[in-house]
Amino acid sequence: MIRRVAFMTGGGDSAGINPFIAAAVRRGVQAYGAEFIGIKKAFEGAAASNIEDEIVRFSQSDVFDLIDRPSTILASSRFNPFSEDKVADGYPNRILENLKKLNVDAVLLTGGNDTIKSGLELHRAGIPVIAAPKSIDNDVSGTDRMLGFKTAVTFGSTAFRGTAQSARTHGRISLVEIMGRNAGWLALEIGIAGGADVILIPEKPVCLANLCSRVKSIYERQGFVNIAVAEGVVISTEDPVLRRACAHSPVVKAMIEENLGVDAHGNKKLGGIGQILRRIIAHELSLKSLEEVRTADIGFHLRGLAAVADDIILGTRFGIAAVDLLFSGASGKMVGIQGEEIVAVPFEQALKQKLVDWSDEELRSVGVLIS
Fold first, then answer.
1. pTM of the model
2. Looking at the structure, do residues 39 and 121 belong to the same domain, yes or no?
3. Pairing of strands 198-200, 225-230
4. In the chain, N or C: fewer CB atoms in 10 Å?
């Protein structure tokens, strides 16, 4: 029988997490008489030596004003207790022992692919686990959207329009680099809503000759260009324009060769594509100065935001559904939304990365470069 439930909020922070916690606590207390605690810093906190120091206790009064609080009240981390080295050091057992010490009967998670993967391991170890998808990247399968995505698009498009207007005013080319890992959802929607002339996404590898030709044409026609570029955009190392740029610019060569390493879950760290493309475009268009191409990176600005109404509503619906699912006896499931219906998705299905799947015709019509 489930009596005490623990929240963990893993991965990159985003809007919508606190409304999820608030709704889940209210639903759990009122409908099931449950008790709730939060574990700070997700799996890192759950593995702590002094677990009591990582605990936040929740009652209905504690979550009264949570819905418009930015980020996550429980802090977060990308700690991976199920990596090979952490397993060898006994971290999974430490987490199970701590949950037992806290009399935790079940866990509610918010997170993206990596957190859900850790949740799957916890489920396999016998702990009932239900997750809600959270990521500004919108890249978890089984759900049309995730907590934090709409807030990131709303504020990201406002920021993009600011750079776009500046490019128009000064007659420049503007590049805005946007998060998303290997999925282009965030760059696509910010680009559309922000009025981008060109959008580059990872799902469509970039031919630099085509890109420079498109930028040159727009620049000559209207006197400015605004480009939205996803951080995970793919350029072949054999691209002739890239090879020429590496020979011309030590900066481009160094950035292409730089190894940023991987995170705790083995994901390649990304960033810097905007600065690379800035130099390539300036050189290929024979611009007088690098200052004619400006670059901005709005990545982390989109994480710690207060949720827009869409994410408050989604967090509330997810919180209620997650608690009902948990007390129905389910485990290893993620709540999601398909159309306007809340659904339960097995973790294994959710872990398949959701990529942009619009038709090429539609993508071209909104400015996506398809080489």
1. 0.93
2. yes
3. parallel
4. N
Whether residue 53 is found in the same domain as residue 79: yes
In a domain, 359, yes or no: no
Separation of alpha carbons 154 and 79, rounded Å? 29
Check whether residue 245 and residue 139 sit in a common domain: no
CATH of the domain at 31: 3.40.50.450
Task: Tokens 């951080």: give the residue.
Answer: 231
Q: Which of 11, 63, 69 is nearest to 37 (CA)?
A: 63
Written as tens digits, the pLDDT of the chain (371 aa) is 899 999 999 988 999 999 999 999 999 999 999 999 999 999 999 999 999 999 999 988 888 888 889 889 999 998 898 988 999 999 999 999 999 999 999 999 999 999 999 999 999 999 999 999 999 999 999 999 999 999 999 999 999 999 999 999 999 999 999 999 899 999 999 999 999 999 999 999 999 999 999 999 999 999 999 999 999 998 998 999 999 989 988 888 888 887 778 776 767 777 789 999 999 999 999 998 888 999 999 888 888 889 999 999 999 999 999 999 999 999 999 999 999 999 999 999 999 999 999 999 999 999 999 98
Closest CA to 130 of 310, 342, 308: 342
* Residue corresponding to tokens 């806290």: 102
Whether 137 is catalytic: yes
Domain count, the chain: 2
Q: Tokens 């623990």, residue?
A: 6
* Beta strand extents in 40-80 (DSSP E only): 55-58
Distance in angstroms between the alpha carbons of the first and the last residue of the chain: 57
Quick check: is 131 in a domain? yes
The answer to whether residues 88 and 158 belong to one domain is: no
Q: Tell me the residue range of the domain where 66 lies.
A: 4-147+307-350
Residue 44 in any domain: the answer is yes
* 224 and 93 together in one domain: no
Catalytic residue, from 114, 137, 197, 311: name it.
137
263 shares a domain with 193: yes
Are 4 and 128 in contact by the 8 Å Cβ rule? The answer is no
Exposure string (b/e) for 207-223, b if CB count within 10 Å is 16 or more? bbeebbebbbebbeeee
Distances in whole angstroms, Cα of residue 54 to Cα of each of 5, 13, 45, 93: 15, 18, 6, 17
